[in-house]
């Protein structure tokens, strides 16, 4: 099993899935990674920027991700 463009696509899809299903209240708040009272800072920290990126990924990629997941499942089931 070598490294190819297909495995890179699958890995990025898995990472996007992980970001989209990650619950801020249950998982991130335990470690201090909650977005409460952090969105309106004058100079946002790296942590705040990462949280904003995760939130925007959830907003933009939610519905196309369903289609990409279905396509990957279909291709994997047909190729074995």
From TrEMBL:
<dbReference type="GO" id="GO:0015031">
    <property type="term" value="P:protein transport"/>
</dbReference>
<dbReference type="GO" id="GO:0006888">
    <property type="term" value="P:endoplasmic reticulum to Golgi vesicle-mediated transport"/>
</dbReference>
<keyword id="KW-1133">Transmembrane helix</keyword>
<feature type="signal peptide">
    <location>
        <begin position="1"/>
        <end position="29"/>
    </location>
</feature>
<dbReference type="InterPro" id="IPR013880">
    <property type="entry name" value="Yos1"/>
</dbReference>
<dbReference type="GO" id="GO:0030134">
    <property type="term" value="C:COPII-coated ER to Golgi transport vesicle"/>
</dbReference>
<keyword id="KW-0732">Signal</keyword>
<dbReference type="Pfam" id="PF08571">
    <property type="entry name" value="Yos1"/>
</dbReference>
<keyword id="KW-0472">Membrane</keyword>
<keyword id="KW-0812">Transmembrane</keyword>
<keyword id="KW-0813">Transport</keyword>
<protein>
    <recommendedName>
        <fullName>Immediate early response 3-interacting protein 1</fullName>
    </recommendedName>
</protein>
<dbReference type="GO" id="GO:0000139">
    <property type="term" value="C:Golgi membrane"/>
</dbReference>
<dbReference type="GO" id="GO:0005789">
    <property type="term" value="C:endoplasmic reticulum membrane"/>
</dbReference>
<keyword id="KW-0653">Protein transport</keyword>
<comment type="function">
    <text>Regulator of endoplasmic reticulum secretion that acts as a key determinant of brain size. Required for secretion of extracellular matrix proteins. Required for correct brain development by depositing sufficient extracellular matrix proteins for tissue integrity and the proliferation of neural progenitors. Acts as a regulator of the unfolded protein response (UPR).</text>
</comment>
<comment type="similarity">
    <text>Belongs to the YOS1 family.</text>
</comment>
